[in-house]
């Protein structure tokens, strides 16, 4: 761990140290945190993520291959409706992410969305959101493992059985996901972010300079058939919107990130940089790739520019996919770890109990994600289903409830001032919009799973087939 800041020990200096509940209080050998307890120099420092590291972790929790489903969503909706939906989702999720930081400063004992559920809805709320949090990230981790296997198949031209590649992804994910603190993760996040953006930009440039996308007719004149506005069915439209929501659904991870910040007061700065960068990237990639590829855009879009560019792009993307997978293994593992050892001296020590518990948590998450990803025939459809159901549920409604929890009583005694009324209406809008998208998106995903299974029968368990041929 990094060294704790050296502080003066004169009595008059120590009296100036704040002692607000949950605020980190330091002296030369020890600090206290409302979540982690006593943080000493002999154990891991769980409060050492700087604001720049926070930017990297935030962006990496959102930018993955999900960004490459945005051109396909634009194909379904049309460019203008797609951009309107994307920007609306960006505004709502940015406010939701902002509320995470505000709620953390108001309630320093909160570590995860499960803790907020416990404050607002009691033990039942804590159990519900804790289960939803773990299930969501387990499915995302499984999706990450399959994405790594796709990249390895694409780069190596299917040099080994896909089941072997998925197992390799699980082993690497467990090894790196077992890094104990997010401060040590932030360097990997920068590497992963750089690699995935390089892959995305490679494809974007390639589709712009090529004559036509790889799947377009090659023996006749061709012009892009992009649409300003489209006329999709309800199921198609809500599925496309769900994919846009999923691209911003890193919100549940932000609780863990702000809890490990060195100074949570810088959270908003990091958030604004993150959301501005993510939205600019999503708009640029979605618009440019769809403009040049039209209805022939691949999903994920790394395959839109032909076999050679796909191989190069997946080569660049591979480190980014590995970092994403390790991060989403780390998050639920850390949540379970803290639930088990919170209040114990073992939480921030290097004791055998600490290590055995920590490695058991990350290993359990890895094994469950690996089995689900490898054994379920319609796993891709289930990821969409879990994303529509849980990704929306944990990115919209709880944050509106958090504002109401902290502010409901403030307006009633003051004649319901205009700002308070406006915020209550906004929270109602967020809850209503989130609930509609959750229910409708879940319905669309279920229909998609059924249609996909009828057409292909799903994939075989622990299949050796080359899964890069379809992307």
Would you tell me the structural class of the helices and strands?
A: mainly alpha
Strand order of the largest sheet: 1-2-3
Unreliable segments (pLDDT under 50, ≥5 consecutive)? 1-29
Helix content: 55-70%
Radius of gyration, in Å, reads: 23 Å
Q: Which architecture would the CATH scheme give at its second level?
A: Up-down Bundle
Name the average pLDDT. Answer: 87
Spell out the helices and strands N to C.
HEEEHHHHHHHHHHHHHH
Mass-distribution shape: globular
- Supply the number of helical segments: 15
**What fraction strand?**
under 5%
Count the beta strands.
Answer: 3
Q: For the record, what is the CATH homologous superfamily label? A: Amino acid/polyamine transporter I
Number of domains: 1
Main beta sheet:
3 strands, antiparallel
**N- to C-terminal distance:** 41 Å
**What is CATH's topology name?**
Amino acid/polyamine transporter I
CATH class, named Mainly Alpha
Subcellular location: Membrane
Family: Belongs to the amino acid/polyamine transporter 2 family.
Pfam family, one: Aa_trans
InterPro entries: AA_transpt_TM
Summed up:
By secondary structure, the protein is mainly alpha-helical. It has helices spanning 11-14, 51-62, 70-77, 79-106, 113-156, 162-177, 182-209, 234-247, 251-259, 267-293, 307-341, 352-375, 379-393, 397-412, 418-456; strands at 25-27, 30-33, 37-40.
């Amino acid at each position: 761990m990094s060294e704790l800041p050296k502080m003066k020990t004169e009595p008059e200096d120590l009296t100036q140290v704040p002692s607000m509940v949950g605020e980190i209080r330091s002296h030369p050998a020890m600090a206290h945190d409302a979540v982690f307890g006593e943080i000493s120099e002999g154990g891991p420092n769980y409060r050492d993520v700087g604001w720049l590291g926070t930017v990297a972790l935030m962006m990496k929790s959102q930018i993955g291959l999900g960004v490459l489903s945005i051109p396909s969503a634009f194909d379904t909706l049309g460019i203008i409706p797609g951009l309107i939906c994307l920007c609306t989702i960006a505004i709502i999720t940015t406010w939701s992410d902002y509320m995470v930081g505000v709620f953390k400063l108001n309630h320093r004992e909160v570590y995860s969305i499960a803790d907020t559920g416990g404050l607002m809805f009691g033990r039942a709320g804590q159990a519900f959101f804790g289960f939803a949090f773990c299930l969501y990230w387990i499915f995302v981790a499984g999706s990450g493992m399959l994405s790594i296997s796709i990249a390895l198949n694409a780069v190596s031209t299917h040099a080994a059985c896909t089941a072997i590649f998925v197992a390799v992804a699980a082993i690497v994910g467990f090894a790196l996901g077992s890094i104990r603190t997010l401060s040590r993760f932030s360097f990997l996040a920068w590497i992963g972010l750089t690699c995935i953006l390089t892959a995305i930009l490679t494809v974007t440039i390639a589709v712009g300079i090529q004559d036509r996308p790889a799947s377009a007719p090659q023996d006749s004149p061709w012009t892009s058939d992009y649409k300003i506005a489209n006329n999709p069915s309800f199921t198609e439209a809500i599925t496309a919107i769900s994919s846009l929501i999923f691209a911003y659904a890193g919100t549940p991870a932000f609780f863990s990130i702000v809890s490990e910040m060195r100074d949570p007061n810088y959270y908003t700065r990091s958030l604004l940089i993150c959301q501005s960068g993510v939205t600019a990237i999503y708009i640029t990639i979605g618009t440019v790739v769809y403009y040049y590829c039209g209805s022939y855009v691949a999903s994920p879009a790394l395959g839109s520019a032909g076999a050679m560019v796909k191989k190069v792009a997946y080569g660049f993307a591979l480190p980014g996919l590995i970092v994403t997978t390790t991060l989403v293994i780390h998050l639920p593992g850390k949540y379970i770890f803290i639930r088990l050892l919170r209040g114990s001296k073992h939480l921030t020590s290097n004791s055998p109990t600490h290590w055995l518990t920590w490695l058991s948590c990350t290993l359990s998450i890895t094994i469950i994600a690996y089995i689900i990803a490898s054994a379920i025939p319609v796993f891709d459809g289930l990821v969409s289903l879990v994303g529509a159901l849980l990704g929306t549920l944990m990115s919209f409604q709880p944050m509106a409830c958090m504002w109401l929890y902290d502010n409901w009583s403030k307006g009633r005694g003051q004649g319901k001032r205009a700002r308070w009324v406006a915020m209550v209406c906004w929270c109602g809008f967020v809850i209503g919009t989130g609930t509609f998208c959750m229910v409708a998106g879940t319905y669309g995903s279920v229909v998609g799973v059924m249609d996909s299974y009828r057409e292909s029968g799903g994939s075989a368990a622990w299949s050796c087939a080359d899964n890069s041929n379809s992307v």
